[in-house]
Amino acid sequence: MSTAASGFSHLLRLSDDTGLFEHARYALVRREHGYCTDDVARGLVVVTREPRPAHRLTRLAECYLTFLTHAQDRSGAFRNRLSFDRRWSDQPGVGDWWGRAMWGLGTAAARNSAPWIRNEARLAFTLGAEQRSPHPRAMAFAGLGAAEVLRAIPDSTAAASLLTDAARAIGAPAESPSWPWPQPQLTYANAALAEVLIAAGELSDDGQQLAAGLRMLSWLCDVQTRDGRLSVVPAAGWRMDAPRSRYDQQPIEVAALADACATAARVTGDQVWQEKVRRSVAWFQGVNDADALMWDQATGGGYDGLTEHGPNLNQGAESTIALISTMQYARRLP
Q: Which CATH number characterizes residue 57's domain?
């Protein structure tokens, strides 16, 4: 595997001293689209996951954390969109960006190698944990951050309460073996929902909840595997009892599967989950429906999607972070 695939070169290209630009045309930043809390939070997750970060990654974590604390208001909600001239274009809220901010803050509070980053992230996480979102996916993302905090700080009542509420918002899997999913449609980052139930079951010693999350994840892996390779639910989603399109597949879906399967492997010790992580890695390396490499070897950027005509060659923040996140697991696989 090339070091470009596992490195941060394109993430650094997309970042400045304010934050992380959302979009790129091929490898070049599109400043007119500005920054968003969603992507900055995702960036904080992956730079924090590095066990021995280079100085430039610590500086990047500081930049991303500063962005998130600036986006947060006194109620714990977050703004999402900042223009290139540093003007917020929206009001604080608790949509997906709140959930992802909580995921980034929780990861930094638990894992970052710099104590000053951990301390500041914990303060912002605790404030944000006073909020709840009506959206299950936002709660799922926040639940992932809460699980990170609880693994490092088991007596965090704010994190425990948030994780419990996140699992409740997701709900229990359906009884039908053909569709054991809490909702009638798969949309985006689906595996995050299963991962939260797995984490909540693990951290509360609730075997039933853990089993429910593993059942959901096993089914999700099965329906997104074709001929031994990943073929993930496309951007348009897939509704129960409806035809399923093959394209446009998104890297975020592959990265979410890698995250959830890595968590399942750690919790259960079952090697079958590591094999499923390998399938996510392989998807980026060309073992996919188009037999196409899903990252740019020259820039290290992740391509924005897999279409019926091949990769979307734009290299935005979301897809690049999905690549980095998945390849972080590749380096740890036996």
A: 1.50.10.10
